[in-house]
Amino acid sequence: MSTEIENKNKTKSKSKLHLAILSLVEGALMIALAQILGYLKFFPSLSEGGSITFVMFPICLYAVRWGLGKGLLAAFALGLLQLLLDGAYAWGWQCMLLDYLLAYTMLGFAGIFRGKKWGIFPGILVGGFARFLMHFISGATLYRIVAPTEILYFGSFSNPELYSLVYNGTYMIPCIVLSLAVAGVLYVPLKKYFTAQDLR
Q1: Are the CB atoms for 44 and 36 separated by under 8 Å?
Q2: Alpha-carbon dihedral angle through residues 160, 163, 164, 166, given to the nearest 10 degrees
Q3: Where does residue 142 rank: exposed (0-12), middle (13-18), buried (19+ CB within 10 A)?
């Protein structure tokens, strides 16, 4: 009887170790994929930072598979890489904190939908909105405009909150839509992966 219990405990510890290693490897791969996708811009970066890419998708997927804690950690790592390797546009450490470290970390909130059927879709929406919120706060406070400023195709703005809303919306909304589109295309063939059934 004691031998059976010992064997079960060993199997459980092996399983936990296997999952821990798998989460680290998968996290590293998703962070690397997101960083690479961040270089594939649909349009040149906007004048004060921000571009339309698929960078959100791998991190939101990782968060939905592994949960909030690991998702936030992976998203923070991506933010750090974006800050260091992507030619960060910032007006000081406060902008680096809000527009990179905090903004990208917000993608990890997709993890609150871990294991949920169709969880990737609300996960992308929540993570994307939380990231947008950080960029909006940064734009309305740190990049605060003091004179009418023009955004191409949208006209001139003298209100900093409205300016930040429109400016950050011009790239964040397409990023969210692109991530949702990729999730829509891949969900059916990869449903077990998206809902983390392979981890149970």
Answers
A1: no
A2: 160
A3: middle
For the record, the structure tokens of 200 come out as 């149970």
| Residue in the block written with tokens 């998708």 | 57
Rounded-to-integer distance, Cα 51 and Cα 67, Å: 27
Q: Are 62 and 30 in contact (CB under 8 A)?
A: yes
Residue-range domain boundaries for the chain: 2-199
Rounded-to-integer distance, Cα 136 and Cα 84, Å = 22
| CA separation for the pair 197, 70 (Å, rounded) | 17
Q: Which residue has the tokens 């919306």?
A: 169
Fold of 2-199: Arp2/3 complex 21 kDa subunit ARPC3 (1.10.1760)
Residue 3, both tokens: 């031998």
Residue burial 52-64, b: 16+ Cβ < 10 Å; e: rest:
bbbbbbbbbbbbb
Q: How far apart are the first and last CA of the chain?
A: 26
Q: How far apart are CA 82 and CA 195, in angstroms?
A: 28
Positive or negative, the CA dihedral 135, 136, 137, 139 is: positive
Structure tokens at 5: 């219990």
157-166 pLDDT per residue, tens = 667 888 889 8
The pLDDT value recorded for residue 177 is: 97
Which tens digits make up the pLDDT trace of 48-74?
667 889 999 999 999 999 999 999 999
